[in-house]
Amino acid sequence: MSDDPRPIRADATSHGLDLDRDRLARKLDALPPGAPVVVMIHGWRYAPGFARDCPHGSILSLDPAPQDRRAVSWPRHLGLDGRQGLGIALGWNAKCDPWRAHLRAHRTGDALASIARTVHALSGRPVQIIAHSMGARVALAALPLLDPGLIDRMVLLAAAETRGRTLAALATPAGRAVEVINVTTRENDLFDACFEWGIHLGLRTSIGQGLGRSLPNWHDLWIDQPRTLAGLAALGHPLADPPRRICHWSPYLRPGTIALYRALIEGRLSAADLPLHRPGRRWSRLILGARGMALSPRLPAA
Length: 302
Known about the structure:
It is a single chain. This protein is of the alpha/beta class. Helices cover about 35% and strands about 15% of the residues. It has a single domain, classed as Rossmann fold. Strand 5, helix 4 and strand 6 (about 150-155) form a beta-alpha-beta unit.
């Protein structure tokens, strides 16, 4: 149906990108001028068709299962109902060990690049990206494959990619043209360390620790820092306290975070207005975390 509010489903498969281009064309034709087109990308341990770990029934769904404590609906809270904005839910097989998921994430960049080209060919519009964990690796892997301007903004959440790979992607024509908000927090330190040592043997640093240098189109947003939180509240975007001292999902589970990303995506808030302060020391959330916070008892999908 033309008024179906569900996101456009796109799956990266072993046979290529599975995408309903006819439905995409209809939804793009009906979208108001200036409304955002947003590709949403999940991280590790999700995979299309895998029961409770299918992203299309969880975070990328308008109506995720209520019993899933991780399942905050990205498209619903971002306003991607096909009228205010259009959501494209990109699924890829990350239900495997982290080493294979790391490799697959890079390869899935080709599927994302194909989506961006298709949206531009059908409508002349750029896409924006919101991606969690290894989904950020997918997002950055698409940049070397694209002309500048086809992706105009990325919001990366607890990103699992190295500084070196990221800088190489940003040095491309598309990378120089994209605006990136890298949302990170010391609650993610343990996961960054696992990524750096488990996959890169401690030889690389994750952008979950920030980019490590200043670029005009890159913004590290440390949502665990008191001055950053005060600045966001002054902009009308207060964030609730994090649910745990160690939490990989805090950048979208914390109340107030997705409303902040929606304001950025819709252009009501500029990245240039964000309060960008230096982070606290690594492990500071673990050592000096708020009294009474419990450690996460299990590692769900990223």
